[in-house]
Structures are given as structure tokens and as C-alpha cells.
Design goal:
Blueprint: E1 10-11, H1 13-37, H2 48-67, E2 70-71, H3 73-92, H4 97-119, H5 124-127, H6 129-149, H7 159-192
Antiparallel strand pairs: 1-2
Length: about 200
């Protein structure tokens, strides 16, 4: 055989869907166990940290699984490694600089590999997803700034408002994606029943 065979890209959902499901499965009982046991032994899931992990940990992993598509092994390893490090660091010591910077790092990497794919879209409904995903990927930077580095008289949004913006952004994204899935499904069902 002549020529070297290039490694085949791997679909991102093979990692990110099971990772997101596992993280959600672990985070919910762990966040309940800390207050119920009377010990704060899971500092990364207490107070606003629980919301941080559900929006910036779980939801961004799901978005990565849906939007990244096939990626070279090196890109997928980079994204998966940063995501795993970010979740681990946040769970153990969310107040540390490394934990505070890894979540925004993963979000920016996700935006780097996802948003350009939507900017090339021709239909307006496909072009909406790019800015919406970019907004969701920029929110962890705002959370980091308001959570640890905001000046004393900072007039901007606080962490709760940023998480509310994240929830609204996720709802819009789910509405957009759900609308794209529901219309063809309804049309296919009606077509099977003989309707045009």
C-alpha cells in the first residue's frame, strides 16, 4: 500500500453524551448529600456551584455532543481532557484559580470548534444557533469574573443573573432544536397516514 492512512475522525457524541449523563447522575445526589449529611464535603456542588455545574458542565457537554460532529482524535482528546479536568477541579476546590479558569477554557474551545460551523449556514434558522451557542460559551467567563474578580462596585450582573441567562439561552436552544426535530417528525407521521 502506498500513502499513509489518516486516522478517522471520531464523533464527539461518543464521549460527551455518556460523560454528560454520568456527570448529571453523580452531581444531583452529591449536591443533596452534602447539606443532608451536615457536611460540606463536596464544595463544588454547594450553592451557586450546583447551577454552575448543571449549566456549564452538563449542558455544555450535551451541546458539544450535538454540535461538534466528527473531530480528529487530537481535538476530541483536548476537549474531553479540559472538560474532565474542569469538572474535577470544580468539584474538589471551586475557589481555586485552576478551577475558575478551566470551565471558561473548555467553553472557549467548544466555541472555537462549534460556532464557525454555523456561520457557514445559508438558512437563517441555522445561522441563529451559532450566536446562541457563542453566548452560552461566553457565560462561564462572566461567571468567573463576577464570582471571584469583580471590583467592589461592579455594576454588572451577578452570578445568579448569569445563570438565569444561561437557563434562558438553553431554553432558546432547546426550542430551536426541538422545532427542527418536531416539524419533520410530525410531517412524516402525517404522510404515513395519507395526509399531504
Amino acid at each position: 500500500m502506498t500513502g499513509s492512512s489518516r486516522p478517522r475522525p471520531i464523533f464527539a457524541f461518543w464521549f460527551f453524551f455518556p460523560a454528560a449523563a454520568t456527570w448529571a447522575t453523580l452531581a444531583v445526589p452529591l449536591s443533596l448529600l452534602g447539606p443532608l449529611s451536615g457536611q460540606g464535603w463536596v464544595p463544588g456542588l454547594i450553592g451557586t456551584s450546583h447551577g454552575h455545574e448543571m449549566i456549564f458542565g452538563f449542558a455544555l457537554a450535551v451541546i458539544a455532543g450535538y454540535t461538534l460532529g466528527p473531530q480528529p482524535v487530537s481535538v476530541l482528546l483536548l476537549l474531553a481532557g479540559v472538560w474532565l479536568l474542569a469538572r474535577s477541579a470544580w468539584l474538589i476546590a471551586p475557589e481555586t484559580t485552576i478551577a475558575q479558569t478551566l470551565s471558561p477554557a473548555f467553553a472557549l474551545l467548544l466555541a472555537r470548534y462549534t460556532v464557525p460551523r454555523f456561520s457557514a449556514a445559508k438558512k437563517w434558522r441555522n445561522r441563529i444557533a451559532g450566536p446562541l451557542i457563542l453566548l452560552l460559551c461566553l457565560l462561564p467567563i462572566g461567571f468567573w469574573f463576577t464570582d471571584t474578580n469583580a471590583p467592589a462596585n461592579y455594576p454588572g450582573p451577578d452570578t445568579h443573573q448569569l445563570m438565569q441567562a444561561g437557563v434562558v439561552g438553553l431554553l432558546l436552544l432547546m426550542t430551536f432544536m426541538g422545532g427542527r426535530i418536531l416539524a419533520p417528525a410530525v410531517a412524516g407521521t402525517l404522510e404515513k397516514k395519507g395526509f399531504r
